[in-house]
Design brief:
- The protein has 439 residues and is of the alpha/beta class.
- It has 2 domains: 2-363, FAD/NAD(P)-binding domain, CATH 3.50.50; 394-439.
- 41% of the residues lie in helices and 22% in strands.
- The strands form 3 sheets. Strands 3-5-4-10-11-12-9-13 form an 8-stranded mixed sheet.
- Helix 1 (10-22) packs parallel to helix 4 (96-109), helix 2 runs antiparallel to helix 3 and helix 3 packs antiparallel against helix 4 (96-109).
- The radius of gyration is 25 Å and the shape is globular.
- The relative contact order is 0.13.
- The structure holds flavin-adenine dinucleotide.
């Protein structure tokens, strides 16, 4: 079979790897609009369970991904001039360009054709393909072409965000919330290599405009953000990747890591190009395939960046689609395979999509939580996925959650220690009774 994957992101590249591993005779091509070796963007986080899945599917690329990743542990939240910390689970992070390079090299070594530097405008550009996989990101052109039959829905978040890097290397997941005269602005940051951390900055649209970000060019915006987050950055720079000495991103307006966004918010008449602020698009599709076109990764669904799951989901889509395609030996069997893939992934996504929606809303309602003590605010930040939290006064939620947490500890102690304690007491009791009989 001939399979064409559009977009050289993690979803398409990993799918190409897995198909070639299981069906080497398939002719698989990945089409990426950017040039080969283009170094774009910052790091993404993932959790140890993803690594386990990657090893189970392709140990070779899993090993390289693990080698190229860094680990972070625990977290800090700086709220104004107060800091609070928690231990938290360990996580991994990897530069997006490193992840893509590992997957592209692996795909090539297995016989996948990689075509760089040409944008695919429509699935009709690929007339010979038995299957066209749209892995062309959140603003997928291929999906947009068939938005009606696919039942595409795109809703845009109320806040503004910008995805930046910094040379300050953080070893813990770090939040900083800064109050300005125009409202709160915040960022979260984590290291993803020995040289850089990711730093995602967010604020409400009103704060964003009042601080002048709708008018400032990219350098002015970066300098203002450095001033606002000076305590976190400790003298290090914020980077948007454009015009950087190593050419990490191509100069010009289109930030390649803006997920193909055609939306940018800023004045285009300034000396320099505007900073790449965005409003997050949440994408859903009633159907994940139409004819011989199948959606994968961000083209099929997006989840708010604040839960750090999009890449993991894209890779898991690839695992699921490859598994479904294993049984399709002829083009006539594709519809059943695509239906099985869609069923499996839609089911798996339900809880993640809910978590992402509530997490985005938590940030959109940030002032609701900023009157709390920093340790309470941080505790509720960790609970932001909860569907209950928006409906319960934050103080009350915090105390109930803590009480439930204590109850769970008691229950755990009872379950673990209860039987042992009962046995000890029973044997002591028995010994005493036999002692009193013999004595
Ligand atoms: C601020 C921010 C932070 C994030 N942090 C995390 C995180 O910590 N952890 C995590 O797991 N996820 C994170 N994500 C999400 C993650 O980046 C995406 O979910 C993931 O990249 C989706 O992979 P993909 O392969 O579907 O699409 P993409 O990675 O977007 O790749 C799509 C590719 O298609 C190419 N393309 C587009 N159109 C065409 C065309 N017409 N022809 C040819 N090529 C085309 C693009 O150039 C691009 O290379 C974050 C996202 C944002 C915005």
């Amino acid at each position: 079979m001939k399979i064409d994957c559009v977009g050289g992101g993690p979803a398409s590249l990993y799918l190409a790897v897995l198909i070639k591993l299981q069906q080497p005779d398939h002719e698989v091509t990945v089409h990426e609009r950017r040039p080969a070796g283009a170094r774009h963007g910052w790091g993404v986080t993932y959790w140890p369970d993803l690594l386990e899945d990657l090893y189970a599917h392709d140990p070779e690329s899993a090993r390289l991904i693990e080698e190229q990743s860094v680990r972070w542990q625990g977290g800090f939240a700086h709220v104004g001039d107060r800091t609070t910390a928690h231990d938290g689970d360990p996580g991994h992070a990897i530069a997006r360009h490193r992840l893509r390079t590992v997957l592209a090299d692996r795909a090539r070594s297995l016989g996948v054709r990689l075509e760089f530097g040409k944008e695919i405008g429509s699935s009709t550009d690929l007339p010979d393909a038995h299957l066209v996989v749209a892995g062309d990101g959140a603003h997928s052109r291929l999906r947009t072409e068939h938005a009606a039959p696919l039942g595409t829905r795109v809703t845009t978040g109320a806040n503004r965000f910008i995805w930046l890097g910094t040379t300050r290397v953080l070893t813990a997941f770090t939040f900083a919330f800064v109050e300005t005269e125009h409202g709160w602005i915040w960022c979260y940051a984590y290291g993803f290599s020995a040289e850089h951390s990711t730093c995602v900055v967010e604020c409400s649209a009103a704060t964003w405009a009042a601080l002048g970000f709708d008018r400032l060019d990219r350098s002015e915006a970066l300098r203002l953000l450095e001033k606002l987050f000076a305590d976190l950055l400790e003298g290090h720079e914020l980077l948007d990747g454009r015009g950087s000495p190593d050419g990490r991103e191509s100069p010009g307006r289109g930030n390649p890591e803006s997920h193909g966004s055609r939306e940018s918010h800023g004045s285009h008449g300034s000396r320099e190009s505007p900073a790449q602020w965005q409003a997050f698009p949440t994408v859903t599709n009633a159907s994940w395939s139409y004819g011989n076109l199948a959606l994968i990764g961000d083209a099929a669904h997006t989840t708010h960046y604040s839960i750090g799951a999009g890449t993991t989901l894209a890779l898991r889509d690839a695992m699921s689609l490859a598994r479904a395609l294993r049984t399709a030996t002829a083009p006539s069997e594709l519809p059943a395979a695509l239906a099985a893939y869609e069923r499996e992934r839609k089911q798996a996504l339900l809880s993640v999509q809910s978590a992402a929606r509530h997490s985005a809303q938590w940030y959109e309602n940030l002032p609701r939580y900023m009157g709390l003590e920093p340790h309470q605010m941080f505790a509720l930040l960790g609970q932001r996925h909860s569907p209950l939290l928006p409906h319960v006064p934050p103080q009350l939620y915090f105390h109930v959650d803590r009480a439930v947490g204590r109850l769970q500890v008691l229950r755990w102690l009872k379950q673990r220690l209860g039987p042992r304690l009962a046995r000890t007491l029973q044997s002591r009791h028995g010994a005493e009774r036999s002692g009193s009989r013999t004595g």
